[in-house]
Known about the structure:
This protein is α+β, with helices and mostly antiparallel strands. The chain has one domain (3-199): Aminohydrolase, N-terminal nucleophile (Ntn) domain (Glutamine Phosphoribosylpyrophosphate, subunit 1, domain 1, 4-Layer Sandwich), CATH 3.60.20.
Amino acid sequence: MSILEYNGGCVVAMAGKNCVAIASDKRLGVQLSTIAMDCNRVFPMTDSLYLGLTGLHTDVTTLHNLFNFKLNLYAMREGRTIKPTTFASLVSSTLYEKRFGPYFAEPVIAGLQADGTPFLCAMDLLGAMAVADDFVVSGTCAESLFGTCETFFRKDMNPDELFETLGQSLMAALDRDCISGWGVDVHIITKEGVTTKSLKARMD
Length: 204
């Protein structure tokens, strides 16, 4: 088993029309043993920018705290809120500078740009960016997520359609992965604000 799969978990982000959504499962495990059923892998960075982290949970917590610190420093120095594209570059450079002793975490970034267009980006543990205009996935059930997201995704979905599509895609993929599950948290980001919804999934 890869160290990235040690604690399980997955994150997926998907774009809609002037909206974007990011979701993760709630299980925290040690290999096949479940430790907690309320694990949070998706963190708000700004009002319209969210960061999802999968991988070794200790590194997930470390990176979350590190990026909070760096964003506070950026806001103090620059006097403005960071753009999603700038934040993606910050995450990438932070991971790459530790490439010889990397953080065992793979980020997913989802946010709205100033003109309302969605921004989606995923990275490996060395910070190599993959920007997409439809969806990005990360975690232990990534292969299943690619299949379900490609099946259900449609362009220009409104927030309600996006929630339904993303939720069903992730729940279908969770049924095929024994180290993820125990429910889903979905965050829908629009110009008006962020809506968070929870779904029940397989509880075993």
